[in-house]
Each structure stands twice: as C-alpha cells, then as structure tokens.
UniProtKB/TrEMBL annotation:
EamA domain segment(s): 7-139
Pfam family, one: EamA
Assigned protein family: Belongs to the EamA transporter family.
Chief place where the protein resides: membrane
Compartments, as annotated in UniProt: Membrane
Domain of life: Bacteria
Protein species of origin: Streptomyces purpureus
Protein's UniProt name: Membrane protein
C-alpha cells in the first residue's frame, strides 16, 4: 500500500469512526422531530462549508448537467435523508442490531455492484474481504427481534448506504469532496424540510433544548462536515469498493464507545467481530499481498497518481527534439529507456487517477526511464448519517 492509499484508508476509517461514535448524540435527539432535526443538521453543515468552498466554487456548479443535478438530488434523498428515515422506521418494529446487520452487508453489495457498473469483474480479494467485514459486523452486533416491516426498512437502509457511495462516484471528480458535501447537504436540508412539512406540518421544527442543540452541532460540524469530506476525499484516493470495506468500523466504534456512554459492554463477541472487520479490510485493501507497479491495473480505484510525461515517443520510435525542449536537448542515455505496455490504468474511469500531460503520443506503448518518476496526488450501521 503506497502513501496515497494509506492516507485515503485512514481518512475513510476516521469518517466511519465518527459515524459509529455518534450514537450518544442520536439518542439525545430521540424526542426531536426527525425531519426537522435533519433539516437543521444539513442546513448548518452547508453554511459551515460555504467559507471553505472557495471563490471558484460556482464554476463547477454551473458546468453540471441536468442529469448530474438529478443524481445529486437522488444521492441526498436516498443516501442521507432516506437512509436515516429507514433506520428510524426499522427500529420501530426491529431491534437496532437488525438494520445494523443489513447495513453491514453494504461492502458485499458494493464489491459486486460497483465493478459491474464500471464494466469490470469484481475483485476476488475485495469480495472476500467484504464477506469478512459483513461477518464481523454481524458478530459485533448480533441479531435481534424483528418483523417483515423491520426487515423491509432495514433493506431500505442498506440501499441508502450503498447509494451514498455509488451515486457519488460520477460527481466526485468534477466537484471535489468539499463542494460535493456542500451541495448534497444543501439539497438534503431542502428535502428534509419538505418531508417535515408533509409529515408534521408546521410542527416539524421547534426550538431544541440545550442537550439537543449540542447534539445537532456535533452531527453538523463533526459527523457531517468533517466526516463527509474525509470520506469522499479518502474514497477518491482508494476507490469505492475499498472505501466501503471500512464501513465495518461503524459497529466497532459503536461497541467501543458504548461502555463510555453506559449503553452497552464490550465483550468477547465484540472483540472477535472487530478482529474479523480488521482482517476483512486488510484483505480487501491488498495488505496481505505484494503488488508491483503493473498491479495497478488489478487494483481499481487506487489513485496512485501515475504520471505520463509529454514528448515521450511510442515504442520503437527515436526521440525527436521539439520546440519547447530544454537546452540540453534529447536524453542521450537511450539505454536507460525501456518499453512498457502503456500507462497503467486503474480501470475505474475516474479523472484524477491517471495524470496525463499534454502532447503525450497515442499508441499502445510508451518509453519511460528506469530512473523513476514523480507521483502526484489527486487531491452507518444505525448511526444517522
């Protein structure tokens, strides 16, 4: 695992830990109107992100197509508002562990769905790792009583968890993590307000108590602003399948913090489940295997910042100096050049993964120097997202 991937993994892990550790805040908001609380949370997060968006934020938004705006609206509706509503409704007739177990299956679904949508075959290490993570989440949480309605709403929560990640992939590149989070939070606030007016009328909002205010501030500033930006930044670095693998940290973080909040204990089952989650994440991220530069092709979503330099001739062609070359002219050490099969891609079709420079010749092969090149970086469970 290179430095770029390690940073991305740590970012996604921290994002999921923040979600898993937010159960105390969620319990404090149990008596606050659901839709109103979500509208306040996402609206506050959007306002907090505005100063961080930068002066040039309007240009990417103006360039978005109608189809991309619809995708963003669906992302906010399904992956945020719908996810939280499904969790809430599931827990009316099911114990909290039931939707937690369903959401814990998200890595398996994404490990299969994301490659198929991208025209690739699912990666076996990622799929096996996802199965370990799902088993670990089940072990940590156990299984509880439920009925058909609880099962269906839990399935809806799973769809929301998958949609939060998969729907974001095509719009993450043009917007970036911060602007994407800002936009979906703004849309989520509007959608929550509309839902509140439909379900509760004018009573969907009320003045929160001191404890409710603190919980809303925590969810808006920490879980949403920090957590979402970290998650999307890390996902852009390591890819969607490997990012969702780390969702097993949600029940693990919840189990670790439960004793501190006096809402549970951390025993042998939680320790065993945590170990399974860790093993699955390590297996899916390739920690147990050695990878060469050529293995980038087999590691979709790993943004290694592969650089293709300009003025590099195709295989078998001599170097010809061009206007703009430095005063030293062509590199005379041709013995140091070796043909390799093209610039290695990651098969993810995301911009930012392979950095190309202008004037790079087309063709199946390029010559690169063995001396090396410079890398450049492109840059819950039942917890309410």
């Amino acid at each position: 695992m290179n430095v770029n991937s390690l940073r991305g993994t740590l970012m996604v892990t921290l994002a999921y830990v923040l979600v898993g550790a937010s159960f105390t805040a969620n319990s404090v908001l149990g008596d606050y109107p659901y839709a109103g609380g979500q509208a306040l949370r996402y609206g506050a997060a959007c306002l907090l992100l505005l100063p961080l968006a930068g002066r040039g934020a309007l240009a990417p938004l103006r360039a978005l197509t109608a189809r991309q705006w619809i995708r963003l609206a669906v992302l906010a509706g399904v992956g945020m508002v719908g996810f939280n509503l499904s969790i809430l409704l599931a827990e009316r007739s099911a114990e909290p562990a039931v939707p937690g177990v369903f959401v814990g299956c998200a890595p398996v679904v994404v490990a299969v769905l994301a490659p198929l949508l991208d025209g690739r075959r699912p990666s076996r290490p990622v799929l096996y790792g996802a199965l370990f993570v799902a088993a670990g989440a089940f072990t940590v949480q156990g299984w509880g009583r439920t009925d058909l309605a609880g099962m269906l709403w839990s399935l809806g929560a799973l769809a929301g968890e998958v949609g939060f990640t998969v729907l974001a992939v095509p719009v993450l590149a043009p917007l970036g993590p911060r602007l994407l989070t800002l936009v979906v939070c703004g849309l989520g606030a509007v959608e929550s307000a509309v839902l509140g007016l439909v379900l509760d009328g004018r009573g969907f909002l009320r003045v929160p108590t001191g404890a409710e205010t603190a919980a809303l501030v925590w969810q808006a500033a920490v879980v949403t602003v920090v957590g979402f930006v970290l998650y999307y930044t890390g996902m852009r670095r390591i890819g969607v399948e490997r990012a969702v693998l780390l969702s097993g940290m949600i029940p693990v973080a919840a189990a670790l913090t439960a004793p501190l909040a006096g809402t549970g204990t951390y025993g042998a089952a939680q320790a065993a489940g945590s170990a399974l989650v860790g093993a699955g994440a390590a297996l899916g991220s390739g920690v147990f295997g050695k990878r060469s530069a050529a293995a980038v092709q087999d590691d979709p979503g790993d943004e290694g910042g592969i650089v293709v330099h300009r003025h590099v001739p195709a295989a078998g062609e001599p170097y010809e100096s061009r206007r703009g070359d430095d005063v030293l002219g062509a590199d005379p050490l041709t013995a140091q050049e070796q043909p390799v099969p093209g610039a290695p891609g990651d098969g993810h079709r995301q911009s930012g993964n392979v950095v190309g420079e202008p004037h790079a010749p087309s063709g199946g092969e390029r010559l690169v120097e063995t001396g090396g090149f410079t890398q450049r970086e492109g840059l819950g469970d039942d917890g309410l997202r």
